Amino acid sequence: MNTVLHGVALMTRDIASCAAFYRQALDFTLDASGDLRTLRLGAQRIVLTPATGAAYPEPRASNDPWFQHLAIVVTDIAAAYAQAMAQGATAISTGGPQHLPASSGGVTAWKFRDPEGHPLELLQFPPDGTPARWQGQSGLFLGIDHTAIVVSDTAASEAFYGTLGFRRTAQTHNHGPAQTALDGLATPHVLVTALALPGEAAPHVELLDYFTPPPRSGTWDAGDVAATRMIFAGSSCLARDPDGHYINLRD
Fold first, then answer.
1. Helix or strand or coil: residue 73?
2. pLDDT, tens digit, for every residue of 71-124?
3. What are 128-153's pLDDT values in tens digits?
4. Number of H helices, E strands in the chain
5. How far apart are CA 213 and CA 190, in angstroms?
């Protein structure tokens, strides 16, 4: 299947306020049309979509089954962290940005939420480990590297996204003190699997399979704030992956 990942849709109860946060906190810009609903950061975009259902669930955890975050590449994570916090971000990570060991990618990362509860992540690559697509760019916030989803069975999810053309590009077992602080969870152990489409550098997809602590159960509907979804080219329909994450297949 020839698939193109157009962007990621965020469900929101207030498009104007949501757009203001992403523009002021994370330096997104309006689409060329000037429409508040489509925001860009570098070559990637998010689409703000009216939420008609429930607010983001409480309590909130990094291993919730509906968890889906956007990972944003930055050039100075301390400055990006300060800017996001000043504009109303809520930290998921404890103790600020965390430097992960080489076995977990060697990046410095920080997880947080926007004012409606959507999870996000800042990523700063080490100077000698920055992917080519992010090299030579200027600015504090560069673009969306990936969207990550919590899954219960990596093999099943990998097979599903394989039907859309995704192929595994990396896999790591992440655990230890830095992962604990990053996730804001008690001693997490997570299998992280990166999937990418041929010829598309970013964003890619990451599967987060938490062995510990196990995700709690729960459901969410298409109109809920938590129903973030990837927007793909293809037939016009709204579908769900094996764990219930919504995906939008469209022309």
1. strand
2. 999 999 999 999 999 999 999 999 999 999 998 889 999 999 999 999 999 999
3. 999 999 999 999 999 999 999 999 99
4. 4, 16
5. 9
Listed residue (105, 194, 188, 74) closest to 146, CA to CA: 194
Name residue 61's amino acid: A
pLDDT of residue 233: 74
CB pairs under 8 A, 24+ apart, for 94-101? Answer: 94/181, 94/184, 95/181, 97/122, 97/124, 98/178, 98/179, 98/181, 98/182, 99/178, 100/174, 100/178, 100/179, 100/182, 101/176, 101/178
Q: Report angle CA 159, 148, 13 to the nearest 5 degrees.
A: 120
Beta bridge partners of 170: 194
Given a contact cutoff of 8 angstroms between Cβ atoms, the answer to whether 39 and 48 are in contact is: yes
pLDDT tens-digit readout, 203-244: 999 999 999 999 999 999 999 999 999 998 765 789 999 999
Residue 197 is predicted with a pLDDT of 94
Give which of 13, 24, 73 is closest to 48, Cα–Cα.
13
Among the residues of 15-67, which ranges form H helices? 15-26
Task: Report the distance separating Cα 26 and Cα 142, nearest Å.
Answer: 10
Peptide bond into 203 cis (omega under 30): yes
Q: CA dihedral in degrees (115, 183, 6, 236; nearest 10)?
A: -80
Confidence band (pLDDT; 50, 70, 90) for 251?
very low
Q: What is the C-alpha to C-alpha distance for residues 231 and 9, in angstroms, rounded to an integer?
A: 7
Q: Domains of the chain by range and CATH?
A: 5-250 (3.10.180.10)
pTM > 0.90: yes or no: yes
* Amino acid making up residue 247: I
